[in-house]
Design a protein that fits this description.
about 280 residues; mainly alpha; 13 helices; about 70% helix; elongated
Amino acid sequence: MVRGRRAANLVGSLALVAALSACGGGQQEAPLDTLSAEEIYNRGEFTLETSRKGKDAVRYFSEVERLYPYSEWAKRALIMQAFSYHKDRDYENSRATAQRYIDTYPAEEDAAYAKYLLALSYYDQIDEVGRDQGLTFQALQALRAVIEEYPDSEYAKSAMLKFDLAFDHLAAKEMEIGRYYLKKKHYTAAINRFRVVVEQYQTTTHTPEALYRLIECYLSLGIEDEAMTAGAILGYNFQSTNWYEDGHRLLTKQGLQPKVRGDSWLASIYRQMIKGEWL
């Protein structure tokens, strides 16, 4: 990715490098140590745009750092190295390079982007529910850092959206395991998983199904008060969903109605969510 404020420079560099390539024909590339920092950097951006492999550009950006370590171009080259690695899905090197930028230039404008790239190095690996959820927790921590440390940056809004999706991902994992236990008729184990979703992931898209599954589990165990209370929460917050319709049908088949009964953990959730009673 080329930053917006550098677009004009890139247009010129593309033309320059293309012209040099045409004139040079099959001649060997000039040694990089004979070029200026800007020329090497521009070759890196050109390679990043034209090569399928981001690592092809890393060579140029790293040479800018090596040959001109205290220049403005070296600073720019470091953040572009991080992006080049990310383009290749080399998340470990992308993360390490982004962290090096943050450590070296913590007050620079691109520090926000470096922090965002670091978060993406975790986030882009959690697209499958079955994968190690440790990555999801790390993504959440890194995304929260972007949101809290750079709230006015252009990356904060994107980080918030990705944070919500990662949070939803954790709930999805709990649901997957809960459904497995339910299918095996291990009702207590299933209840524990669905309870996590209702208590810890209330804002996710999985809460309605979790409440429905709790109705299924509690009815299977003959625990009517909890089943009715789960139905009451489902009806109050998610009455327009199919999950409520199915849950209401399960209860009425047993001669029951959605209603808060007893003093279980679900009754506490009802008081918190519906009545605002937190004590």
